[in-house]
Known about the structure:
Layout: E1 19-22, H1 25-39, E2 44-48, H2 53-61, E3 65-74, E4 78-82, E5 90-95, H3 108-114, E6 117-121, E7 137-141, H4 143-146, E8 152-156, H5 170-189, H6 194-210, H7 219-226, H8 230-248, E9 254-256, E10 269-274, H9 278-287, H10 307-315, E11 316-320, H11 327-342
Parallel strand pairs: 2-3, 2-5, 5-6, 6-7
Antiparallel strand pairs: 1-8, 3-4, 7-8, 9-10, 10-11
Helix pairs in contact: 1-2, 5-6, 8-11
Amino acid sequence: MVKEIGSEFWSDGPVKCNQAYLLSGRTALEFIICDIQKQYSVRSVLLPSYCCHTMIEPFVRHGLAVRFYDVYMDERFGLSVDIPEICEQEIFYYMTYFGFVQLHGLNFEQIQKKAAVMIEDCTHSWLSRNTCFEADYRYASFRKWTGLDGIALASKQRGVFSNLPQAYNFSYSMMRKQAAAMKRAYIESGIGEKKRFLELFEEAEELLERDYVGYGASAETIASFFQLDTVSISERRRANAEVLINGLSDLPELKLMFETLNDRDVPLFVPILVLNDRAGLRNYLIDHAIYCPTHWPLSAYHEGITKRAEILYEKELSLVCDQRYCVDDMYRVVKLIRDYYKR
Length: 343
Protein backbone atom coordinates (compact mmCIF):
# COMPACT_ATOMS: atom_id res chain seq x y z
CA MET A 1 0.00 0.00 0.00
CA VAL A 2 1.37 3.43 -0.95
CA LYS A 3 1.71 5.78 1.98
CA GLU A 4 -0.63 8.70 1.35
CA ILE A 5 0.73 12.21 1.80
CA GLY A 6 -1.48 15.26 2.25
CA SER A 7 -5.20 15.96 2.60
CA GLU A 8 -6.89 16.12 6.05
CA PHE A 9 -5.12 15.39 9.35
CA TRP A 10 -6.20 12.18 11.08
CA SER A 11 -4.59 13.00 14.44
CA ASP A 12 -2.76 15.87 16.11
CA GLY A 13 0.33 13.95 17.15
CA PRO A 14 2.19 14.72 20.40
CA VAL A 15 1.51 18.17 21.84
CA LYS A 16 4.47 20.03 23.36
CA CYS A 17 4.49 23.67 24.34
CA ASN A 18 5.86 26.04 26.95
CA GLN A 19 2.47 26.78 28.55
CA ALA A 20 -0.10 24.66 30.33
CA TYR A 21 -3.57 25.47 31.65
CA LEU A 22 -4.25 23.72 34.94
CA LEU A 23 -6.94 23.45 37.59
CA SER A 24 -5.53 25.72 40.30
CA GLY A 25 -2.46 27.66 41.37
CA ARG A 26 -1.26 24.78 43.49
CA THR A 27 -1.81 22.36 40.61
CA ALA A 28 0.32 24.64 38.41
CA LEU A 29 3.06 24.90 41.04
CA GLU A 30 3.08 21.11 41.48
CA PHE A 31 3.37 20.73 37.69
CA ILE A 32 6.33 23.15 37.61
CA ILE A 33 8.13 21.41 40.49
CA CYS A 34 7.84 18.07 38.67
CA ASP A 35 9.31 19.66 35.53
CA ILE A 36 12.16 21.23 37.52
CA GLN A 37 13.09 17.94 39.16
CA LYS A 38 13.31 16.28 35.73
CA GLN A 39 15.80 18.88 34.46
CA TYR A 40 17.69 20.31 37.44
CA SER A 41 19.44 19.02 40.52
CA VAL A 42 17.74 20.97 43.32
CA ARG A 43 17.73 20.37 47.06
CA SER A 44 15.89 23.33 48.59
CA VAL A 45 13.66 26.32 47.92
CA LEU A 46 13.90 29.87 49.26
CA LEU A 47 10.34 31.13 49.72
CA PRO A 48 8.94 34.49 50.85
CA SER A 49 7.90 34.41 54.49
CA TYR A 50 4.57 36.00 53.53
CA CYS A 51 2.71 33.32 51.61
CA CYS A 52 -0.15 30.82 51.78
CA HIS A 53 0.53 27.29 53.04
CA THR A 54 -0.58 26.05 49.60
CA MET A 55 2.61 27.58 48.17
CA ILE A 56 4.78 25.66 50.63
CA GLU A 57 3.15 22.22 50.75
CA PRO A 58 4.04 21.07 47.20
CA PHE A 59 7.75 21.68 47.83
CA VAL A 60 7.63 19.74 51.08
CA ARG A 61 5.77 16.88 49.42
CA HIS A 62 8.51 16.66 46.78
CA GLY A 63 11.22 16.34 49.43
CA LEU A 64 12.71 19.82 49.08
CA ALA A 65 14.01 21.66 52.13
CA VAL A 66 12.18 24.94 52.72
CA ARG A 67 13.86 28.18 53.77
CA PHE A 68 12.25 31.61 54.07
CA TYR A 69 13.38 35.12 53.29
CA ASP A 70 11.77 37.90 55.30
CA VAL A 71 8.91 39.94 53.85
CA TYR A 72 8.12 42.77 56.26
CA MET A 73 7.00 46.38 56.56
CA ASP A 74 9.88 48.82 56.78
CA GLU A 75 9.05 52.24 58.24
CA ARG A 76 10.97 54.05 55.51
CA PHE A 77 10.58 51.86 52.43
CA GLY A 78 7.27 50.09 52.97
CA LEU A 79 6.93 46.44 52.03
CA SER A 80 10.46 45.06 51.87
CA VAL A 81 12.42 41.84 51.61
CA ASP A 82 15.63 40.65 53.22
CA ILE A 83 17.31 37.97 51.08
CA PRO A 84 19.85 35.71 52.79
CA GLU A 85 22.73 34.01 51.00
CA ILE A 86 21.27 31.65 48.40
CA CYS A 87 22.42 28.05 48.74
CA GLU A 88 23.73 25.82 45.98
CA GLN A 89 21.05 23.84 44.11
CA GLU A 90 18.33 26.13 45.46
CA ILE A 91 15.12 27.36 43.84
CA PHE A 92 14.32 31.04 44.37
CA TYR A 93 10.58 31.84 44.54
CA TYR A 94 9.48 35.41 43.92
CA MET A 95 6.19 37.29 44.02
CA THR A 96 4.78 40.78 44.46
CA TYR A 97 1.65 41.37 46.50
CA PHE A 98 -1.95 42.36 45.85
CA GLY A 99 -1.28 43.73 42.36
CA PHE A 100 1.16 46.40 43.57
CA VAL A 101 4.66 46.06 42.13
CA GLN A 102 6.46 48.01 44.86
CA LEU A 103 8.78 45.71 46.82
CA HIS A 104 12.03 47.04 48.27
CA GLY A 105 15.28 45.15 48.71
CA LEU A 106 15.53 42.86 45.67
CA ASN A 107 18.65 42.55 43.55
CA PHE A 108 17.63 40.28 40.69
CA GLU A 109 21.05 40.34 39.08
CA GLN A 110 22.65 38.85 42.18
CA ILE A 111 19.81 36.36 42.69
CA GLN A 112 20.01 35.11 39.11
CA LYS A 113 23.74 34.49 39.47
CA LYS A 114 23.25 32.19 42.46
CA ALA A 115 19.84 30.51 42.20
CA ALA A 116 19.64 27.22 40.34
CA VAL A 117 16.07 27.99 39.18
CA MET A 118 13.76 30.97 39.58
CA ILE A 119 9.97 30.73 39.89
CA GLU A 120 7.77 33.82 39.68
CA ASP A 121 4.32 33.57 41.19
CA CYS A 122 2.25 35.99 39.09
CA THR A 123 -1.06 35.30 40.81
CA HIS A 124 -1.19 38.72 42.48
CA SER A 125 0.51 40.55 39.60
CA TRP A 126 -1.48 39.06 36.71
CA LEU A 127 -2.63 42.43 35.31
CA SER A 128 0.27 44.52 36.60
CA ARG A 129 3.08 45.59 34.31
CA ASN A 130 5.90 43.96 36.20
CA THR A 131 8.76 42.82 33.98
CA CYS A 132 11.76 43.11 36.28
CA PHE A 133 13.43 39.90 35.17
CA GLU A 134 12.96 36.71 33.21
CA ALA A 135 12.10 33.86 35.55
CA ASP A 136 12.71 30.27 34.48
CA TYR A 137 9.10 29.44 35.35
CA ARG A 138 5.98 31.49 35.96
CA TYR A 139 2.51 30.59 37.11
CA ALA A 140 -0.72 32.35 38.04
CA SER A 141 -4.13 31.42 39.38
CA PHE A 142 -7.06 33.55 38.24
CA ARG A 143 -9.89 32.54 40.57
CA LYS A 144 -9.65 35.54 42.90
CA TRP A 145 -9.54 37.88 39.92
CA THR A 146 -12.46 36.54 37.92
CA GLY A 147 -14.46 33.88 39.76
CA LEU A 148 -13.76 31.32 37.02
CA ASP A 149 -14.17 27.90 38.60
CA GLY A 150 -10.78 26.32 37.89
CA ILE A 151 -7.95 27.76 35.83
CA ALA A 152 -4.29 28.57 36.31
CA LEU A 153 -1.45 29.04 33.84
CA ALA A 154 2.07 27.60 34.08
CA SER A 155 4.83 28.64 31.68
CA LYS A 156 8.56 28.08 31.24
CA GLN A 157 11.12 30.40 29.72
CA ARG A 158 13.24 27.78 27.97
CA GLY A 159 12.16 24.47 26.50
CA VAL A 160 8.71 22.93 26.50
CA PHE A 161 6.44 21.00 28.84
CA SER A 162 5.67 17.40 27.98
CA ASN A 163 2.94 15.14 29.37
CA LEU A 164 0.36 17.92 29.71
CA PRO A 165 -2.45 16.94 32.11
CA GLN A 166 -5.46 15.35 30.42
CA ALA A 167 -7.56 14.64 33.51
CA TYR A 168 -10.20 17.09 34.74
CA ASN A 169 -11.55 17.40 38.30
CA PHE A 170 -15.23 17.40 37.37
CA SER A 171 -16.46 17.22 40.99
CA TYR A 172 -14.59 20.35 42.05
CA SER A 173 -15.74 22.31 39.02
CA MET A 174 -19.38 21.36 39.45
CA MET A 175 -19.34 22.26 43.17
CA ARG A 176 -17.89 25.69 42.38
CA LYS A 177 -20.36 26.32 39.56
CA GLN A 178 -23.33 25.24 41.65
CA ALA A 179 -22.25 27.37 44.59
CA ALA A 180 -21.69 30.40 42.32
CA ALA A 181 -25.14 29.97 40.74
CA MET A 182 -26.73 29.74 44.19
CA LYS A 183 -24.92 32.88 45.33
CA ARG A 184 -26.04 34.78 42.22
CA ALA A 185 -29.66 33.80 42.88
CA TYR A 186 -29.31 34.89 46.51
CA ILE A 187 -27.60 38.23 45.74
CA GLU A 188 -29.78 39.20 42.79
CA SER A 189 -33.18 37.80 43.79
CA GLY A 190 -32.99 36.83 47.47
CA ILE A 191 -33.56 33.17 46.56
CA GLY A 192 -32.17 30.39 48.73
CA GLU A 193 -30.11 30.30 51.89
CA LYS A 194 -26.71 31.91 52.27
CA LYS A 195 -25.51 29.11 54.52
CA ARG A 196 -25.92 26.49 51.80
CA PHE A 197 -23.77 28.11 49.09
CA LEU A 198 -21.10 29.01 51.66
CA GLU A 199 -20.99 25.36 52.73
CA LEU A 200 -20.72 24.27 49.10
CA PHE A 201 -17.82 26.65 48.42
CA GLU A 202 -16.10 25.26 51.51
CA GLU A 203 -16.70 21.66 50.41
CA ALA A 204 -15.14 22.46 47.03
CA GLU A 205 -12.02 23.94 48.63
CA GLU A 206 -11.72 20.96 50.97
CA LEU A 207 -11.86 18.68 47.94
CA LEU A 208 -9.14 20.70 46.22
CA GLU A 209 -7.02 20.54 49.38
CA ARG A 210 -7.13 16.73 49.19
CA ASP A 211 -6.99 16.23 45.43
CA TYR A 212 -5.29 18.89 43.30
CA VAL A 213 -2.49 17.06 41.49
CA GLY A 214 -2.44 16.40 37.75
CA TYR A 215 -5.60 18.19 36.60
CA GLY A 216 -5.95 20.46 33.60
CA ALA A 217 -8.45 23.26 33.13
CA SER A 218 -11.58 22.48 31.13
CA ALA A 219 -11.94 23.70 27.56
CA GLU A 220 -15.04 25.64 28.62
CA THR A 221 -13.12 27.47 31.35
CA ILE A 222 -10.20 28.25 29.05
CA ALA A 223 -12.62 29.68 26.47
CA SER A 224 -14.27 31.84 29.16
CA PHE A 225 -10.85 33.04 30.28
CA PHE A 226 -9.97 34.28 26.79
CA GLN A 227 -13.23 36.21 26.62
CA LEU A 228 -12.43 38.30 29.71
CA ASP A 229 -12.30 42.07 29.20
CA THR A 230 -9.02 42.65 31.05
CA VAL A 231 -8.94 46.35 30.14
CA SER A 232 -12.29 46.94 31.84
CA ILE A 233 -11.27 44.81 34.83
CA SER A 234 -8.06 46.80 35.25
CA GLU A 235 -9.74 50.18 34.94
CA ARG A 236 -12.47 49.36 37.47
CA ARG A 237 -10.03 47.93 39.99
CA ARG A 238 -7.69 50.91 39.73
CA ALA A 239 -10.53 53.41 40.13
CA ASN A 240 -11.88 51.55 43.16
CA ALA A 241 -8.45 51.27 44.75
CA GLU A 242 -7.83 55.01 44.34
CA VAL A 243 -10.92 55.77 46.42
CA LEU A 244 -9.84 53.43 49.22
CA ILE A 245 -6.24 54.67 49.29
CA ASN A 246 -7.18 58.36 49.24
CA GLY A 247 -10.01 57.91 51.73
CA LEU A 248 -8.02 56.02 54.37
CA SER A 249 -4.51 57.44 54.09
CA ASP A 250 -4.85 59.81 57.05
CA LEU A 251 -6.31 57.39 59.63
CA PRO A 252 -3.78 56.86 62.45
CA GLU A 253 -5.37 53.54 63.42
CA LEU A 254 -4.45 51.99 60.06
CA LYS A 255 -1.43 51.75 57.82
CA LEU A 256 -1.78 51.26 54.08
CA MET A 257 0.62 48.56 52.90
CA PHE A 258 0.88 50.54 49.66
CA GLU A 259 0.37 54.29 50.00
CA THR A 260 0.30 55.09 46.28
CA LEU A 261 -1.04 53.50 43.12
CA ASN A 262 1.53 53.76 40.35
CA ASP A 263 0.98 53.34 36.62
CA ARG A 264 1.96 49.66 36.67
CA ASP A 265 -0.36 48.57 39.50
CA VAL A 266 -3.67 46.75 39.07
CA PRO A 267 -4.85 45.83 42.58
CA LEU A 268 -6.16 42.44 43.54
CA PHE A 269 -7.11 43.91 46.94
CA VAL A 270 -6.13 47.04 48.83
CA PRO A 271 -4.31 45.66 51.89
CA ILE A 272 -4.24 47.60 55.14
CA LEU A 273 -2.56 46.89 58.46
CA VAL A 274 -4.96 47.30 61.37
CA LEU A 275 -2.70 48.39 64.20
CA ASN A 276 -5.03 47.25 66.99
CA ASP A 277 -7.98 44.82 67.09
CA ARG A 278 -8.22 43.69 63.48
CA ALA A 279 -11.04 41.31 64.45
CA GLY A 280 -13.09 44.21 65.79
CA LEU A 281 -12.93 46.17 62.54
CA ARG A 282 -13.48 43.08 60.43
CA ASN A 283 -16.56 42.05 62.41
CA TYR A 284 -17.94 45.60 62.24
CA LEU A 285 -17.66 45.48 58.44
CA ILE A 286 -19.32 42.05 58.38
CA ASP A 287 -22.20 43.47 60.41
CA HIS A 288 -22.64 45.97 57.56
CA ALA A 289 -22.48 43.29 54.82
CA ILE A 290 -18.85 43.92 53.82
CA TYR A 291 -16.68 40.82 53.81
CA CYS A 292 -12.93 41.33 53.72
CA PRO A 293 -10.49 38.40 53.82
CA THR A 294 -7.15 38.24 55.59
CA HIS A 295 -3.97 36.95 53.94
CA TRP A 296 -3.08 34.40 55.18
CA PRO A 297 -3.55 32.09 58.16
CA LEU A 298 -0.30 30.93 59.71
CA SER A 299 0.22 27.18 59.54
CA ALA A 300 2.68 24.52 60.66
CA TYR A 301 4.39 24.98 57.28
CA HIS A 302 5.42 28.52 58.31
CA GLU A 303 7.60 27.33 61.18
CA GLY A 304 10.76 29.39 61.42
CA ILE A 305 9.59 32.76 60.07
CA THR A 306 10.67 35.78 62.10
CA LYS A 307 8.60 37.92 64.44
CA ARG A 308 8.69 40.89 62.08
CA ALA A 309 7.43 38.64 59.29
CA GLU A 310 4.56 37.40 61.47
CA ILE A 311 3.21 40.93 61.89
CA LEU A 312 1.77 40.89 58.36
CA TYR A 313 -0.26 37.76 59.17
CA GLU A 314 -1.50 39.26 62.42
CA LYS A 315 -2.54 42.71 61.18
CA GLU A 316 -3.32 42.57 57.43
CA LEU A 317 -6.89 43.05 56.17
CA SER A 318 -7.68 42.92 52.43
CA LEU A 319 -10.19 45.53 51.29
CA VAL A 320 -12.22 44.36 48.31
CA CYS A 321 -11.90 46.55 45.19
CA ASP A 322 -12.85 44.25 42.34
CA GLN A 323 -14.80 44.83 39.15
CA ARG A 324 -18.14 43.77 40.63
CA TYR A 325 -18.26 47.09 42.47
CA CYS A 326 -18.13 50.79 41.64
CA VAL A 327 -16.57 53.83 43.30
CA ASP A 328 -19.78 54.51 45.24
CA ASP A 329 -19.37 51.14 46.91
CA MET A 330 -15.80 52.09 47.84
CA TYR A 331 -16.95 55.39 49.35
CA ARG A 332 -19.33 53.32 51.48
CA VAL A 333 -16.43 51.18 52.71
CA VAL A 334 -14.36 54.26 53.51
CA LYS A 335 -17.22 55.85 55.43
CA LEU A 336 -17.85 52.72 57.47
CA ILE A 337 -14.19 52.37 58.43
CA ARG A 338 -13.96 56.03 59.39
CA ASP A 339 -17.22 55.77 61.37
CA TYR A 340 -15.82 52.74 63.21
CA TYR A 341 -12.93 54.80 64.53
CA LYS A 342 -15.12 57.78 65.45
CA ARG A 343 -17.17 55.74 67.91
